[in-house]
Each structure stands twice: as structure tokens, then as C-alpha cells.
Design brief:
By secondary structure, the chain is mostly helical. It contains two helices and no strands. Helix 1 runs antiparallel to helix 2. The radius of gyration is 26 Å and the shape is elongated.
């Protein structure tokens, strides 16, 4: 039987740090692309690559989160079924008396 997972809420400090580090890295990479000594086509290609990587990272994170939520729900349903079966069974019941 699996133990239920305890979800701790994300602290404001951690959320702020994650948002700031994401924003800073995105801005730093965008500035790096703009400052490269290459033509507009190369900059455009790198910019589109940056957009694609960021959007696919968000999509992957959402898919992982959704799969974890489905697994947790399935585990809860299985546990509820098992609990119901165990409650319905009376170990001390004697047949024929």
C-alpha cells in the first residue's frame, strides 16, 4: 500500500526566486542574441529557437504535473476501494451460528 504524498505549499521566497531567475536568464539570453555579431537571419533563428525552447519547457512541466496529478487520483481511488473492501469484511464473523 502506498503512503499518501504530502504536498507542501511553495513559499513566497522560493516562488520569487524561481520567477526572477527565469526572467533574468531569459533577458540575458535575449541580450546575448541581440549583441551577437551576426546577421538578422541568424538572430531571428536563435530568437525563434529561444521561444521554442521556453514554450516546450513549459509544456513539458505541465505534462509532468498533469501525470503526477492523475497518478495521485488513481492511487486515492485504489486506496478507497481497498478500504471499502476491508471495512466490509468482518474477521470475527462466524458463519452458521
Amino acid at each position: 500500500m502506498s503512503t499518501p504524498s504530502i504536498q507542501r505549499p511553495t513559499t513566497t521566497a522560493f516562488y520569487t526566486q524561481a520567477a526572477l531567475s527565469f526572467g533574468l536568464s531569459l533577458v540575458a539570453l535575449a541580450v546575448g542574441i541581440v549583441k551577437l555579431p551576426v546577421g538578422a537571419w541568424e538572430r531571428g533563428f536563435l530568437g525563434l529557437g529561444l521561444i521554442f525552447v521556453v514554450s516546450s519547457a513549459f509544456t513539458l512541466a505541465k505534462c509532468v504535473r498533469d501525470r503526477q496529478e492523475v497518478d495521485e487520483i488513481a492511487n486515492r481511488v485504489d486506496k478507497a476501494r481497498l478500504d471499502k473492501l476491508l471495512i466490509e469484511q468482518d474477521a470475527f464473523k462466524v458463519e452458521g451460528l
